[in-house]
Amino acid sequence: MENKRWKTVYRTIMLIIVVSIVTFIVANIMNYDGSRKYFITARDDAEINEQLEIALSAISEIIEEKYIGEIDKQKLIDGALKGMVESVGDVYTEYYTKEELEDFSASTLGNFVGIGVYMQADPAKDVVIIQAPIENSPAEKAGLKTGDEILKVDGKEYKAKDINEMSNHIKGEEGTEVELTIKRGEETFDVKVTRGGVHINYVVNRMLEENIGYIYIETFDEGCKDDFLSAYNKLLAEGAKSLIIDLRYNGGGLVDEALDIADLMCDKDDTMLITVDKDEKREVTKSKTAATINMPIVLITNGATASASEIVAAALKDNEKAVIVGEKTYGKGVIQELIYLSNGGALKVTSAEYYTPKEAKINEVGIEADYKAEGIEEQEKKAIEVIKEKMK
Question: 146-158: per-residue pLDDT in tens?
């Protein structure tokens, strides 16, 4: 799990650079069925880094000597690094290239450069349609609307299957212009949109019946705590007397943002999180301030509630600040650190397991709901029923 603004980790990782010059390699070459056979050997007591450097250097030399096509050396390096990281066998430990890191950064921070539209492929019509323009985005300001069909980008035609290619074409540097050919109903026209910064608000609020406030958190991106507090204060001004926090389909995000939100509802010095690292070192995170939000609270969870959202659910449940309605959570009780590399990429590595304040295991176990309910409508109905009971 990434820490807020990625300031937790500033370690320097030395990259293993695949070069054509073989260092410390013993390669015996012999004739074998008309071909040459390379033996890559290293001392039995050689460190893993030395063995890895020897093998990669030898393979690099062979590829450069033998391969008849063009070689992209950066792809060789990225491929080697990805293969090594994937061999760890942990789905959450990943190597990001420079380009992948940029996309990951935008996603995690909730900030993008583009035109700001949600797009969807429509196989029936064989076109890409706009699901919705993002609020205050360049797309919205240019007049693009839900249901618009994007036929061309800068004169190039795209079909439904080309949605990823189209998306990459639409992306670009801030301040540059892209022209879309739009079909709206029976009308076809061109729209020029100037790419700009786009911020996605992952927190949505509304008032329900009987002064019940409702806040949905899609993910814990940067600034989520401020967005949450703003949504709460708005509901409070409208007369909210209780609060439903919806964490369904929230797959996690930044741990610090999740803890900051839990801190708003926990008492000072309440235990919110326990982590254990590779060396069995325990770290206990406690609430720093007195509770800001003091009203009946119900959380809604399902099987897609994971990671940082499970931290919030466990903190509020174990400290008796909320009850949970819905389904058992996913059970991702491990934290990743993001470590920047000198080539512009990064390594996201699982570095700790976390437990509930009452020291219950979460990873591959999940958190049980206090009141079980299945289905979106039934869960919301049950949450309202439970919170009304708590308000009596």
Answer: 889 999 999 999 9
Instruction: Give yes or no for a contact between 258 and 316, defined as CB atoms under 8 angstroms apart.
Output: no
pTM: 0.69
CA distances from 48 to 24, 62, 82, 159 (A): 13, 21, 17, 48
Shared domain for 228 and 319, answered yes or no, is: yes
Catalytic residue among 260, 309, 318, 382: 318
Q: Which of 307, 317, 348, 382 is catalytic?
A: 307
Q: Which of 174, 199, 224 is the last residue of a domain?
A: 199
Sort 130 into a burial class: Cβ within 10 Å, 0-12 / 13-18 / 19+: buried
β-pairing verdict for 26-32 and 35-41: antiparallel
C-alpha–C-alpha distance, residues 230 and 216, integer Å: 13
Catalytic residue (choose from 225, 317, 321, 332): 332
Place of tokens 């921070």: 109
Check if 126 is active-site: no
332 is catalytic: yes
Domain containing residue 146? 113-199
Is there a catalytic annotation at residue 269?
no
Residue 55 CA to residue 47 CA, distance in Å, equals 13
**What pLDDT, in 10s, does the model give residues 220-254?**
988 899 999 999 999 999 999 999 999 998 888 88
